[in-house]
Amino acid sequence: MFKIDPTANRISPLEVKRFAELGFTERKHLQEWLENTPQALAQGEGEELLIIQKEFDGFDDTRERLDLLAIDKDGNLVIIENKLDDTGRDVVWQALKYAGYCANLSKSQVVDIYQRYLNQKAQEDGTEPGSAEENLVEFLEVDGLEAAQINRIKTQRLILVAAHYRKEVTNTVLWLSQFGIACQCFKITPYQAGEELFLNVEQIIPTPESSEFMIGMVAKEAEEKSADSEQKHRHTLRLAFWEQALDAFGKSGCSLYNNISPAKDHWLSAGSGLTGMPYQLIFGKNEIRVGLSMQNSEAAANRFVFERLEERKTEIEDAFGAELTWLPLPNKKACRIQYAKAVDGYDKANWPAMIEWLVEHMTRLETALHDPLKQVNQQLKQVSFGSEEVAGA
């Protein structure tokens, strides 16, 4: 790895170091880095990991602890084992044991494990703990936890992290991949240039995204079938609802959804003129909602637009005709402005009134935000937030 000096138009090599000589340890440093920056291990396109526990010791009849436990966007549990400068010979066996221990965790147990982690973090930081259920629903992008498929049969993943891999470790990982066991190896290398320290994280062994060991299969299969059935039912309902809703929008004065097709998701987005900041209709079991979601990849741009609109809150709400809910979501990348109504969403007899409500309130929201968004769009063209284009045409 080289450091670029644009002034001199030269590159200079960085010095490869060992963690031990830099004074870094596995638990105090590497584990903390990965816990707080799990995206370092999310190398695939669209891949995200959510850490739900560290130093997890909730295994019956054993005192063993796994370093980090995470969940991916598909609801698969991810066992992360860190070994700093050298893997040792037994890291694969150790990770497989932990995967076996975790394989029979039910959805409610996973939620409980994550909630204990959030409670502990809040106690350390002196803050109020977040809700594990709400965080998981948002992370997995599902309409309620009951629809989430978490820790399904044969989906546990292994991630090994080390600076050096012994041959017996890499050979075993490659052999396991032939049996559909998802195991990734990340090579971590510290570098130094003067007083500056750098860390390179490189995936050296990609494998399939499934694993093949399970405890409590009968109970897990029943849970999985129930979740599959529930999800298919919801997909069918949503498609039918959106077909009716889009038909109503097409006959209304709101043209936002004229070229939008029905989908299986619980939301339906339409362009607002700002990149990554769509208008959204929400159809849930207990709630319907209209809103503007500021979800551009540049968090600073989302915050900028939200704050500019919030400065005109009174004007916007007067035009809308009701108080809106303003959600800056300081601990997340996105921001939202929304207006909701409680409903019995899955009773089809309620759909005509629900759709009428959505059409009316999305029309009012678009009208209220039309001029403010147009002015914010002009302001965005004068501000740089990185490489992502934010302002619309």
UniProtKB/TrEMBL annotation:
GO MF terms held by the record: nucleic acid binding
Q: Where do the DUF4268 domain residues begin and end? A: 237-371
- One short Pfam name that applies is DUF4268
Q: Which domain of life is it from?
A: Bacteria
Instruction: Please give the InterPro entries that the UniProt record associates with this protein.
Output: DUF4268, tRNA_endonuc-like_dom_sf
Q: What is the protein name given in its UniProt record?
A: DUF4268 domain-containing protein
